[in-house]
Amino acid sequence: MNGIPKDPASTDRERAKAQRREDLLTEATRLFAIHGYAGVSLEDLGAACGISGPAVYRHFSGKSAVLIALLVGMSQDLLDGGQKVAGAGGTAAETVKRLIAFHTDFALARPDIIQVQDRNLETLPAAELQLVRKLQRSYIALWTEQLHLIHPQETNAVIRFRAHAAFGLLNSTAHSAHSPRTSKAGLRKLLNQMAASALFTPVG
After folding, report:
1. d(CA 62, CA 18)
2. Quick one: pLDDT at residue 182?
3. How far is the C-alpha of 174 from the C-alpha of 66, rounded, in Å?
4. For residue range 104-150, what is the model confidence (pLDDT) as tens digits?
5. CA separation (Å) from 126 to 38, 52, 63, 131, 133?
6. Would the pTM count as exceeding 0.85?
């Protein structure tokens, strides 16, 4: 009923459950990136969070549900962030530069999830794979819409190729960002400049 305050104990339990779910997703991302999706059991995942394997079922129906949550969540996070960037206004060039910076920061902060997607996207059930593809298309459209304004003479195919080439460059950090020899600050600047060159340089 409206106006009746929630039981504080119930609120604490809900908060703890939500935090446990986030912890499981964080550990799943790390373990899947290191050992591969097939190499991690629910027992491994539970142990990483200090709970038993069966206790994981309180949060996910199975290991596939964990992967679904990770990859759908990743695509949704990219789309939400990209929409916020694109909605900030400015010229097309300014928007693309902000999109580059956003995606670079995402790739450097979350290299594990990029590796998990690279290796396991096609293992998603058909419905969830279709959802991820839809979210990805919407994210790409944010970039191509601005790129068409910068390169109005180019075809849709060339514009999409530019965008995908930039994604490939930025996402490649997933394979090098863990190295202790890699400077994140230096890599961020380099990636931003290289992606900008790929996206802004006229072809002719």
Report:
1. 17
2. 57
3. 20
4. 999 999 999 999 999 999 999 999 999 999 999 999 999 999 999 99
5. 19, 30, 16, 9, 10
6. yes
3-state SS, residue 196: helix
User: At CA 104, angle to CA 102 and CA 108, rounded to 5?
Assistant: 120
Which uninterrupted H or E stretch holds 35?
helix 8-35
165 has pLDDT over 90: yes
Tokens of 75: 């695509």
Find out whether 195 and 107 touch, Cβ atoms under 8 Å: no
What does 102-130 look like in DSSP terms, one character per residue? HHHHHHHH-HHHHHHHHHHGGGS-HHHHH
Cα–Cα distance between 147 and 134 in angstroms, integer? 20
184-200 vs 126-150: helix crossing angle, rounded to 10: 70
Q: For 46-81, how does the pLDDT look when each residue is reduced to its tens digit (9 = 90+)? A: 999 999 999 999 999 999 999 999 999 999 999 999
Euclidean distance between CA atoms 39 and 53, whole angstroms: 15
- Cα–Cα nearest to 113, from 40, 44, 171, 60: 171
C-beta separation of 127 from 159 below 8 A: no
Least confident stretch, 13-17, 71-75, 83-87, 110-114: 13-17
Give first-to-last CA distance, the chain, whole Å: 67
Question: How far is the C-alpha of 128 from the C-alpha of 163, rounded, in Å?
Answer: 24
Residue 36 has a CB neighbour count (10 Å cut-off) of 13
